[in-house]
Amino acid sequence: MLTRKWCILLFSLVMPLFFDVAPAHAARPLNQTIQITTHFRTITGNPVWLLILRDADSGVVMPYLYDVKNEDNFWLALSFGRNYIITASTLKFGPFAVIHNFCHLEDGVLAGKSMTVTLTGDLTPVSITSRCRVLKYNDNAFTIST
User: How far apart are CA 100 and CA 13, in angstroms?
Assistant: First the structure.
């Protein structure tokens, strides 16, 4: 029986034979990133964080859904445009417990800015029990190669 690692290796070797696949380079360069790190003491319920980015130049929408199950997490939200808007940052604990504009990230057009977001404290439906630290910085475009 093939292990998962061997299946992935076999798949990556066979797929280029059937399709026109270019495995070595990214199709389009990444411009801005949002790096999210969490160090929660406790988590109440089963929160889900919806983060939606919209490229201000092309209008492309990139939704990210983070299911918060662990106290310590590291996530990335990637933008392919230089200018983007965070159109939603919504943390839901259920149908009635919702925090809109979580971490105050919905803040107009971010032109050439990447972010590092660090979340600490207790994650509850009461927004003052957790703390968000947001660092915005100028970032240059880079390309991911595999």
Answer: 45
- Whether residue 76 contacts residue 33, with contact meaning beta carbons closer than 8 Å, is answered with yes
Phi, psi of 133 (to 5 degrees): -115, 120
Tokens of 73: 């997490």
Over residues 82-134, the pLDDT tens digits come to 899 999 999 999 888 999 999 999 988 888 899 999 999 999 999 899 999 99
Q: Provide the edge-to-edge strand list for the sheet that holds 113-123.
A: 72-79, 32-43, 113-123, 130-138
Report the C-alpha gap between 87 and 105 in whole angstroms.
Answer: 9
Which residues, including other chains, have CB under 8 Å from residue 113's CB and lie 6 or more apart? 32, 136, 137, 138, 139
Neighbours of 131 (CB within 10 A): 13
* Tally of CB atoms within 10 A around 17: 7
Rounded Cα distance, 117 and 63, in Å: 17
